[in-house]
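Lecture notes, unit on protein representations.

Consider one protein chain, 509 amino acids long.
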Amino acid sequence: MKGIALIGMPGSGKSTIGRLLSRYLRWDFIDIDEEIQKASGLSINEIFSHYGEQHFRTLEKEILLKCTGNNRVISTGGGVVIDKENRKVLSENLQSFYLKTPLGALFNRLKEKKDRPLLKGNLLQNLKELYSERKNLYENTGTTINTKGLCPEEVAAIIVRHLQIEDTPISVSSPVHPFIVGRISLSKLSNYPTVTTKRVWHIYKNFITPEKLHITDDGEAVKDIKNIEMLFQKFIQWRVERTDSLVAIGGGALTDAVGFAVATFKRGCKLINIPTTLLGQVDAAVGGKNAINMAKIKNIIGIFKHPEQVLADPSFTLSLPYERFAEGIIEGLKMGLVASPPLYEFIKANLKKLKDRELKTLKEFVRLGAEAKLRVVERDPYDRGERMILNFGHTIGHAIESTYNISHGSAVAMGMVFSIAASRKLNTLKLKLSTEEEALSIIQEIGITPKLEIKPECLWEKLLQDKKIKDGKLRFVFLKDVGKAVILSISPEQLKSVLEVGVNEISGN
């Protein structure tokens, strides 16, 4: 595939975003300014000072021609578009993207920089003049990406969506519901009523184009009963019929909320889930559990209804900040520990690539994760037995999440630390020390467990409200070995003892 060239004003983030794209695509990264300095043995300032701008532009052209090729990401200098021949190379031989960035943002990023010879003196005035001279050249040379209000990961994700990547979607065979992982064309779904969140819309608004579109709150707020009522009102306005399919594009909270609304509206319509988070793709949007929150209790009201299909495109996950992205690795690790040794081994062997968000690795990770979950759901669709093993780390995790107001992924990671430590302490399980240490090491390397001083008494009341309580006993998931989880019913007295053991491990005591 043709290489990518990033063009734009100084300070627009070309190098930062280029390095992200290089990791995501596993392509070489080339910074033209760095290559010029290597070739000349001089800094940019020294080249301008000793030989002038024209000499620099000659070197720039030579390096651009030399570096142009397939499967590489090139970060160009701000003035590369001045030369007509450069513009032809950028337009015809590369996929070029113009990172359009507000002048205020450029000023804030560059005000402490001393290595920009064309910006010496009055920085803001110089930026305005350069922008005026180059604006049309940028816009006529590459696809414009408006970076206002976007972080580097989000800009990189938008660029990836613009690429014509050769990708064959993989269908995970399951009688539960269809699951497809790979490149998804949103334009093919533009005739369906669609619900998405404010943040997803802000990032992907050029790709989400249905006539019937509702944009709702981000995160857990979407699972509030007021938002559910708004969804019902929108369905009535759209005149949704029972045979209609609706589309949910967003994270696990969004697919949960829309799934609940769709399952109960007119006693059930059809839903196509397009999860945009890694957690959603390997877990939350898969398997037909739909729930909303009430009285500050997570998922207290819910219903089982399988989606018509789940379409998982790993490129959506590239836009996430690392902590949100890593929540999905944690959920996949959970799935591997309790139900899929092959998934666990895949994570062990590919953790760095997963953390780097290498797309091919993500695709296989999502496939294995969905495959493992759907196997469990097939055997226990209504969560009355084996499916409870998927709550590994979640019982204590949900209590930590609501008590200490931390992210779901971080809370579940802490819950898994708790459950792994408690599993070895329970003599009846005989979890090997080597297995415990290996699993805890992977969680630590994923790197989203905050340092908190957990107080058992603060979790006590939340745990007693857990929906898995039966006959006064709380059912906890523990681990005998990788792929071998057990569900134990624990009395309040036993729970206090287990809490002390697990909380000590979480707190590092």
